[in-house]
Each structure stands twice: as structure tokens, then as C-alpha cells.
UniProtKB/TrEMBL annotation:
Its cofactor is Mg(2+); Zn(2+). This is NAD(+) diphosphatase. It is an enzyme of class 3 (hydrolase). One of its GO terms (biological process) is NAD+ catabolic process. Belongs to the Nudix hydrolase family. NudC subfamily. InterPro entries: NAD-cap_RNA_hydrolase_NudC (IPR050241), NudC-like_C (IPR049734), NUDIX_hydrolase-like_dom_sf (IPR015797), NUDIX_hydrolase_CS (IPR020084), NUDIX_hydrolase_dom (IPR000086), Znr_NADH_PPase (IPR015376). One of its GO terms (molecular function) is NADH pyrophosphatase activity. Residues 123-248 form the Nudix hydrolase domain. Its EC number is 3.6.1.22.
């Protein structure tokens, strides 16, 4: 199974979501040995690669945004996410970050290593927290300022060096909306390949403060409760979508597009 990425797009058939076979790879000039196995076992049939951004799709195929494909991929979504992260890891670690020597693939594990200085580089994972704040029958949802089409969702942010996940939750909430929390509870996690995040989701109870948004991060934050209309929220294939839907107040109306 061949995952061919062009930026954040995946090559699939124009009609359906079938992946390209070896013949299509050959047409594109992709040699089998240039593709990265998704696991360190060389006999695996799952391989991925990033190609040039100006490469055109062959006849009968199209490059489609991976994020938009997730609902159609179903159970294959996690596999496609791994394929993207592995291909991105190889693309961004061609040379040693210490001495600039070309990296080589290890034979005993999924690892790139420098033959000159011995540096080892493993697939990158960036942990990020997500928290849905509850106040009685109300929940806090926010829109991120950096995305023109951002949906209303739970607060989120990356964990910084030296922090625990719990520390990151309290810091991010204080920075983004100026609130205090209590009763932090784990909800679930999801690998999120945009480009290499691990989303770790929580719920928490409101414990004080008034909403004061960090304008460079948050464009709007509101409490939504029984009977309110909630604007577009994340898709069900994301942990953000599942987190919000699992705690919707009674009688709310969703605006889904």
C-alpha cells in the first residue's frame, strides 16, 4: 500500500479513495527503495513518501487534502496519519542536525542515524493538551484567531519543555482566556498528523475568573448552555469533535457545515 504525499495532500483515485499501485509509482518515477516503510520491518507492504509540490497527479488520480479525506478513510485514517508522519520525518531529517552529514536508515529500528557523529533521530511526536471547561450546564468553546475558517472548539495548546500535561492545561487556559480550573479529568487521546501532534484531551470544572481572550491566539470564546445555538464544531473524526459532542448541554442546536 503506497501513500504518496504532496505537501498535506494524499494521492488517491479520482473516483474513490484507492491508493496508487506500483505501476503508478513507476510512472511518477518513484523507486520502491526510495519509499519509507511505516514500520522497521522491511517486509511491510505499507510505505510512504513525500514528492515535490509541483508534481502533477497521473491520469485517473488526484492529490486531495488529507484532512478532508479523513471522514472517507474511516478505519484507514489512522494508518494514513502514520504514513504522513513517517514521510514528514524522513523529509525533514535528510541531514544530521549536528554535523550536516546525510542520514542513514537504521536496520534494527525505525530510526535515522548519522554515520559521522552517531546522532539518532526518531519520528517526531509533539504532545498537545486539549481541555473542555464546564460550568454547571455550560461549556466553554473558542475560535482560534489564526485560522479564517476556524470552528468553535475546546481550548488547546502544545506542551512546553519541562511541563507536565496538567501544567500545560492550566497555563494555556490562563493565557488564552484568563480562567482558573479544578477537577481536571482525562478524556482520551488521538494521534493528529498535522504535522505530528499527539492530542491529549481533558475536561475540567470552572474555578473562577472572567473571560479575557489572548487576541493573537483566540478570536472569540463563549459559554454555551441549554437551548443555545452552537456554531460549527470540529468533525467527529477528531478527538476535539468527540470531546465537545460528549458534553453538549441539553437542548442545544448545532450548526454543522
Amino acid at each position: 500500500m503506497n501513500f504518496i504525499f504532496r505537501g498535506d495532500e494524499l494521492l488517491v483515485r479520482e473516483t474513490g479513495i484507492d491508493l496508487p499501485d506500483a505501476g503508478v509509482c513507476a510512472t511518477l518515477g518513484i523507486a520502491p527503495e526510495s519509499m519509507q516503510p511505516l514500520w522497521h520491518l522491511q517486509q511491510t507492504h505499507y510505505r510512504s513518501i513525500h514528492v515535490a509540490r509541483d508534481l502533477d497527479a497521473p491520469a485517473g488520480y488526484a492529490f486531495r487534502k488529507l484532512r478532508a479525506l479523513l471522514p472517507e478513510l474511516g478505519e484507514q485514517a489512522a494508518l494514513a496519519g502514520r504514513a504522513f508522519q513517517i514521510a514528514e520525518w524522513v523529509r525533514t531529517h535528510r541531514f544530521c542536525g549536528v554535523c550536516a552529514t546525510p542520514m542513514q536508515h537504521a536496520t534494527h529500528e525505525l530510526c535515522l542515524q548519522c554515520p559521522q557523529c552517531g546522532l539518532h533521530a526518531y519520528p517526531r511526536i509533539s504532545p498537545a493538551m486539549m481541555v473542555l471547561i464546564k460550568r454547571g450546564e455550560h461549556i466553554l468553546l473558542a475560535r482560534h484567531a489564526r485560522y479564517a475558517t476556524a470552528r468553535y472548539t475546546a481550548l488547546a495548546g502544545f506542551v512546553e519543555a519541562g511541563e507536565s500535561i496538567e501544567d500545560a492545561v492550566h497555563r494555556e487556559v490562563a493565557e488564552e482566556v484568563g480562567l482558573k480550573l479544578r477537577d481536571l479529568r482525562y478524556f482520551g487521546s488521538q494521534s493528529w498528523p498535522f504535522p505530528h501532534s499527539l492530542m491529549i484531551a481533558f475536561t475540567a470544572e470552572y474555578d473562577g475568573g472572567d473571560i479575557q481572550v489572548q487576541e493573537d491566539e483566540i478570536s472569540d470564546a463563549q459559554w454555551f448552555g441549554p437551548g443555545d445555538t452552537i456554531p460549527n464544531i470540529p468533525m467527529t473524526q477528531s478527538i476535539a469533535g468527540r470531546l465537545v459532542r460528549a458534553h453538549l448541554p441539553p437542548g442545544v442546536q448545532l450548526v454543522e457545515t
